[in-house]
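Subject: complex prediction, re-run

Hi both,

The earlier run crashed halfway through, so I resubmitted it with identical inputs.
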Amino acid sequence: MSAFSRIAQSPGLAVPVLLLWTLGWALASAEEPADDVRKGRALYVSQQCWQCHGHEGQGGVAGNRIAPTRYPYEAFARLVRFTNLMPAYSPKVLSDEQLRLIYAYVRSMPEPPPLEEIPELDFD
Amino acid sequence: MKPDNQPHPAPSDREEPARVNRRDFLSSAMAAGLAATGAGAAGKASARQAADNAQAPGALPPTAAQEAMESEIPHGYSADQAREYFVRNPGSDFMLDVIRRLGLEYIATNPGSSFRGLQESIVNYGGNQAPELLTCVHEEQAAAMAHGYYKVSGKPMGVLCHGTVGLQHASMAVYNAWCDRAPMILLAGNHLEATERRAGVEWSHSAQDCVRVIRDYIKWDDMPLSLQHYAESMARALKIAMTPPAGPVAVVLDGHLQEAEAGNQRLSLFSVSVNQPPTGNEAAVAEAARWLLEAESPVIVADLMARDQEGVERLVALAEALQAPVVNQFGRMNFPNTHYLSQGSTAVAQADVVLGLELFDVWGVINTVRDRVHRDSVRKARPDARVISIGSNDLFTKSNYQNFQRFYPSDLSIAGDAQATLPMLTDAVLSGMRPARRATNAAREARWREAHSLARAQALDEARYGWNASPVSTARLYAELWNVVKDRDWALVSDDGAQSRWARRLWPIDRHYQYIGRSGGAGLGYGAPAAIGAALAHRAEGRFAVNVQKDGDLMYTPGAFWTAAYHRIPLLTVTHNNQGYHQEFMHLQRMAARRQRGIDSSWRVGNELRNPDIDFSRMAGAMGVWGEGPITDPDDLGPALARAAEVVDGGEPAFVDVRCQPR
Ligand SMILES: Cc1ncc(C[n+]2csc(CCOP(=O)(O)OP(=O)(O)O)c2C)c(N)n1
Ligand SMILES: [Mg+2]
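This time it finished cleanly. Structure:
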């Protein structure tokens, strides 16, 4: 299911999240400080994001792909705190600052190689 | 439309008189009981065997001279002494004749004295051929092997074990088979007559009712008290096991009956005519066809449906007639994922009519329960969607174990075997289709073609993410494996659910035998032995079998490797080794988040399989299986798989341990 349709299914979230998404799109390409990325990586592991989203945020049956992220921070944070199928992380277990660092890490993840450069995926 | 071409059996339950100790006569006169039993390759081998037997010189009744020789008292013994020491016609020889008559080709076993009589008959009297004993190092593995073997061959295997400790061990694998509708015949040794028991262990290994431990999840059982009773119960057991919904059955082999002199009783053997699968009610099927034709957007969902390639082709015929998408839940390989009408489960959301075929869980196709504090259910289908179900679930069920899933009040419910009912339904659809409806087919086709190629492109695109990751991504695992299997006649003998379904998403799967579904009851320990049982069936067809094996699951039944090596069963096993019980990590995390306690380091407790890390390739090697790994660098994977594949091509099992991403 796409993020859009999932958000649209939670009526309370649809409007604010979509607004933030559109507004934040332009901002979501800045470079993240290396130190934040390092700390964020550690939190991504200790907060168990990898369990469902994979060590590279690649996603799978247990959670969708979250990296590289298309979301501005506000939308990303909302999706972690107010969830549909994912366990909700309250600020008590994951502070705003920690979540921001995780976000920095997720944003720093590079695009994978293009299909043309992966002969093993040349199925057809 | 092709007729339901279940192979045609011998005339029903033919009874044939026989006298015990006509060994050659009996074994050669054996008819192909199992030629009648159902799927695909099922018939062929036993039919062949029956033909061979008919040619055998021993097909003549024994001569008087032979008879005299057999009754001769061994030199130097008095008649009384001979009676004390020797048995001329052990009951278990006749028991074996019955098994052969029914056509069981293999019996998976872990030896036990409660059936030493039959074991000796199988190896000496029967020459360990059809049935051949498969040595298993745990009864659970024996039952899981039978489970996997059936799903490929369409034939039941015997599982021979102690009625007490053996069935206790076998029980979880029997439960998986029950949930997955896989027949097998459990043969349980027991000593009922108390005064005949040897002191000590034989008492501990006897029970009044040894099948009780598994009775909640088998279809039928009996404890025959005479050889004729046994012959009839075995024939009945086979019939019941194979009738949809198929499932395990058990027959107790009394120890005394096996070992005692059978004398010159007149005993009858049976050729079993296995039931043709029941079709749904004709009027109801016609009504279903009308609903499907009226529907703007009908969707077909299939789960434990196809028994063989014929089942796949029948579903293709129906889907194409309607130009309706098929959501294959892959309980069996029901529909080619290469076909444009093969669609993801989200297709259900827009359906106005849903046709469910042998669904394990009808309710779960229409609804879902969210795993939150309040387990609210959410309808996934449209509120006005009508549901037709065709399946054999209601034809046989039991109460205690709840694998029947939540009740869903289908709008039109048809009890019958879906594969057998499909031709009738497709005929009704084709004959009821008006020109105006037919004219919409082109647009429907275009829509689903586009959706199919979009989904294909998306799957390939998604597979790139984490491509160079270490541990290896599950997409990469399957992409690298594809390179190994694509030029071979391959068959996957495991389920890809824990690997984010990458086999279904990436590999072109169009043959029934290429995918065998899941364990059924989600009881762990199924993977390795079921894969080996399936690979045994593939060996007969010269296919290249592959098992993607979860690490936790493997640790329940690792001894199955030894069985694969001993019996030289070619199989490539590759681990999805995420170093733990990953499913349970996720549950623990959910609980901790819900309780706002965090989980910084506690996540490992009870869940990890590290420190010490399990050296799986050495474990495989210790049991005679060629092994490599652990592979951590994804670039090392392709070459390792290629080396392993060569071993498998040489007719042996091979193993590659791969440290993988969790899902
Ligand atoms: C016999 C049995 N015991 C326990 C469970 C509970 N259980 C479900 S999934 C799971 C983890 C399995 O680990 P593994 O096979 O390695 O798969 P993973 O989730 O790690 O991919 C466990 C313990 C079960 N299903 N069956
Ligand atoms: Mg695991």
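The radius of gyration of chain A is 15 Å.

- K.
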